[in-house]
Design brief:
The chain is of the alpha/beta class and about 240 residues long. The protein has helices at about 35-45, 60-70, 80-85, 95-105, 135-145, 160-165, 180-190, 210-225, and strands at about 25-30, 50-55, 75, 85-90, 110-115, 120-125, 125-130, 150, 170-180, 195-200. About 40% of the residues are buried.
C-alpha cells in the first residue's frame, strides 16, 4: 500500500533555492544615493536595466547626481524616493542611519527595505566594527520600521568597482539576510541583475552583525594588498 493509499499526503518537492522571482519591473530607490556606495549601486542597477531613483536630503543634489549617472536614473528628496520605490536600499552613513529612518517611517511602510549600512569606527589602527544597541544596523532598521519588510545585503561591495564604467562585471557574492524567504529571494534576484554578482541567503537578521562587521576585515585586506576585495561563497 502506498502512502497515498493510506491517506497521507506526499510532501511536495523542495523548492530550488536558485529559483528566484523576476524583479526587472520593480523600481529601486537608493537613500544615500549621492554617496560613493549608494551612487555605485544606483549606477550598476540602472546599467542592468533597473528603474532607479536616487534619494538625498536635498532634492537638488539627488537630481544632479542622477543627471551625471544618466541611464534613466531620477533624483528626489528622501521622502519622494522612498514613496515612489518598490524596493528601498539604505546606503546612508552610519552616523545618520537612525535619524534618516525615523524621519521616513511613514514613506517606508509596506516597502521592502534593504539595509547595507556598516557600523564602523576608525582610528590610527584602522577600521573596526561597532555594535549598535539593537545588535546591528539591520536590526536597528527593523526596530525603527515595524511596518516595513527589512532585509540586509550589499555590504561587501567596493564603491570603486561599482562606479567604474570600465568594469564590465563584478565577480562577488552578496550575502542576503532577512526574516521572510520571499523577501530575501527578491533581494537575491536583484543582486543577480548585476553581471558577475550573485545573491546568497545567509540567515536571519540576528546574524547581520557579523556580516556588517566583516567589512572592517575587507578594508584591512584592501589596504594591505591595494585591492578591491569582495567575497565568494564556495560549494553553493
Amino acid at each position: 500500500m502506498t502512502s497515498t493509499d493510506s491517506g497521507s499526503t506526499p510532501k511536495p518537492p523542495a523548492k530550488d533555492p536558485w529559483e528566484l522571482p523576476d524583479v526587472s519591473d520593480l523600481t529601486v530607490g537608493v537613500l544615500g544615493g549621492t554617496g560613493d556606495q549608494g551612487r555605485g549601486l544606483a549606477y550598476r542597477l540602472a546599467r542592468a536595466g533597473q528603474k532607479v531613483i536616487i534619494g538625498s536630503r536635498a532634492a537638488e543634489r539627488a537630481e544632479a547626481a542622477a543627471a551625471e549617472l544618466g541611464l534613466g536614473v531620477e533624483g528626489a528628496d528622501n521622502a519622494g524616493c522612498a514613496s515612489r520605490s518598490d524596493i528601498v536600499i539604505i546606503a546612508v552613513p552610519w552616523e545618520g542611519h537612525a535619524k534618516t529612518l525615523e524621519s521616513l517611517k511613514d514613506e517606508l511602510a509596506g516597502k521592502l527595505v534593504v539595509d547595507c549600512v556598516n557600523p564602523l569606527g576608525f582610528d590610527k589602527k584602522g577600521a573596526y566594527a561597532l555594535k549598535p544597541e539593537e545588535g546591528s544596523a539591520a536590526e536597528q532598521a527593523a526596530a525603527l520600521l515595524p511596518d516595513s519588510r527589512v532585509t540586509a545585503a550589499f555590504h561587501h561591495l567596493s564603491a570603486v568597482l561599482l562606479q567604474d564604467p570600465a568594469v564590465e562585471q563584478i565577480d562577488t557574492d552578496v550575502m542576503v539576510l532577512g526574516e521572510v524567504r520571499a523577501d530575501t529571494d527578491i533581494v537575491q534576484a536583484l543582486a543577480g541583475r548585476i553581471p558577475g554578482m550573485r545573491g546568497v541567503f545567509a540567515g536571519r537578521l540576528r546574524n547581520a552583525h557579523q556580516v556588517e562587521s566583516l567589512v572592517a576585515n575587507l578594508i584591512s585586506v584592501n589596504r594591505r594588498y591595494k585591492a578591491h576585495a569582495g567575497l565568494r561563497v564556495t560549494d553553493v
